[in-house]
Amino acid sequence: MDRNQATGLILFAAVILVYSIFFTSPPEPQLQEPTGEVISSVQGNPTENITQEVEEVDSLQDLKAQIQYGVFASLVKGNESEVTLENDKMIVTFSTKGAEIKQVELKEYKTWDQRPLILMDNESSDLSYQINTTKGSLSLNEFYFTANTSTSQVDGESVPTIEFTAQTSSGKITRSYSLPNESYVLTKKLALDGLTSQLVDSNINIIWDAKLLRQEEDIEESRRKTNINFYKSSEKYDYLSQSKDETSEQVSEPLKWVSYSQRFFTSGIIAGNQFNSGSLEQVTPQDTLSVKNMKSTLALPLENGKAELSYYFGPNNYKVLKKITPGFENNVDMGYFFVSWVNKYIIVNLFHFLEKFFSNYGIIIIIIVFIIKLALFPLTYKSYVGMAKMRVIKPEIDELKEKYKDDPTKQQQEQMKLFGQLGVSPISGCLPMLLQMPFLFAMFFFFPNSIEMRQESFLWAHDLSTYDSFIKLPFTIPFYGSHVSLFTLLMTVSQIAYTHFNNQLTAAQGPMKNLGYIMPIGFMFILNSYPAALSFYYFVSNMVTFGQQALIKLFVDDKKIREKVDASKVKNANKKKSKFQQKLEDAMKAAESNKKKK
């Protein structure tokens, strides 16, 4: 045996020796006859081992919770259950895990397909309150609370209240909610007693992430009317852009409230005092699972560890919203400033007054048309007389056009002179009509946003708040749609008939005559997908106006108007030009002079 072989043999023996000492198992015990004592020992060991393992796991979880949550560690263990608050308007469901709103159901309303109307639930909405502690940012939604229901007296009324309490070794967290009867407002109080030393700042961050549930059949119209509105403490209302699919805004100044406003319903959060700042974001999804996706992050200040706020979950009823908090009525779009006053101070009050006597909203619309037309009748009469004057002096105007057909400036000057002599104003027929325009435009905003029309039927229209699909088309017409709205069709025919009658009264010629026929066709395309209530209002309005003018025609004699015009001509024969007429003529001459120089 050489040296290498001897060395290998020694190493091999050493490996076997080390293995036998450290890695081999002890000899198995000899099998014995089973006895009761042995059986007892064998059965008891697994239970003790499992118990020991569970205790070790619990200890590890407790240690981990202690490291992560500090004094709040005891609050992350518990059992979840549901508690509800209910009045005659809504049912609010809470979870003891987080003591937060889990679901809100409005009892008076249904979705377009007659399902319960849920404004928010735990699957579509996440409402989280986060505190900044020495252990980092912690969400109250992770803590388990104990619920206690009671009633409290508010202005002599018993108000149902739920108080959620989470007790720690250092203090407690209390979240209490109250829901008065006949109210859409849920009030909330939050208190951190004995725990302020655990906070690194005096703000609690509210993060409200929501996918707004679809409530109406026409999702495109719903999306056009859905956006985030907010009201600054400086009493300035604002909103995110409705025209963009994705938009956001950082608001550094204090806010009073933020709302997720849909076409007919609003969910809002209102500060007891103010939110110090806010981050707002809205996105229009590509699918139809939600109307829009909203997210708000609000900084709510704590005063001595306490804060108050409230929620609004309810309809976009102007009179209801106006009572909630300053500026909250802006969640109902009443139109631009020059027409909104008509809706706010006339139409809304008129509607609510008529609702006391009539339950059919088609009848209410007809009555409103008659009331408005009656109030505006003096303007309609003046407009008709003004057009009649222009009609009777048409021969003189045609004569001037022929005489000065090669000199437009001179033609206009002579026409102005003729109008002054005859006592006729070319705008006398148009001005009264312009004064009626705010009412026509006001309805364009009122009916599409009026919750009073929602799911109210009239004649063949099953829902006045959406289009009346009289005929379904097997194809889609661009800018028109895949259906035919009969009320819109009737409105178009009535407008064309009114235009024809009006052209006869004014003896209109040229482009203005044709324009009167083109506009109704254009509106037919625009209003085909608008609410049936709007088209029906315009249809009734056209018919009433047509009737008014036919009635006025019976009492206005063109011969008498001609006699008045001739009398004015004699009276004004030697009358000096007014300053306005002189300035107008000078301006026309100056314009013509500049034109020739060029």
From TrEMBL:
It comes from the Bacteria. InterPro entries: Membr_insert_YidC (IPR019998), Membr_insert_YidC_N (IPR028053), YidC/ALB3/OXA1/COX18 (IPR001708), YidC/Oxa/ALB_C (IPR028055), YidC_ALB_C (IPR047196), YidC_periplasmic_sf (IPR038221). Gene3D superfamilies: 2.70.98.90. Keywords: Cell membrane, Chaperone, Membrane, Protein transport, Transmembrane, Transmembrane helix, Transport. It is found in: Cell inner membrane; Cell membrane. Its main location: membrane. Residues 83-346 form the Membrane insertase YidC N-terminal domain. Pfam families: 60KD_IMP (PF02096), YidC_periplas (PF14849). It is a multi-pass membrane protein. The chain crosses the membrane at residues 334-354, 361-381, 426-447, 477-497, 517-540. Residues 361-553 form the Membrane insertase YidC/Oxa/ALB C-terminal domain. Belongs to the OXA1/ALB3/YidC family. Type 1 subfamily. Required for the insertion and/or proper folding and/or complex formation of integral membrane proteins into the membrane. Involved in integration of membrane proteins that insert both dependently and independently of the Sec translocase complex, as well as at least some lipoproteins. Aids folding of multispanning membrane proteins. Interacts with the Sec translocase complex via SecD. Specifically interacts with transmembrane segments of nascent integral membrane proteins during membrane integration. This is Membrane protein insertase YidC. The lineage of its organism: Bacteria, Pseudomonadati, Bacteroidota, Cytophagia, Cytophagales.
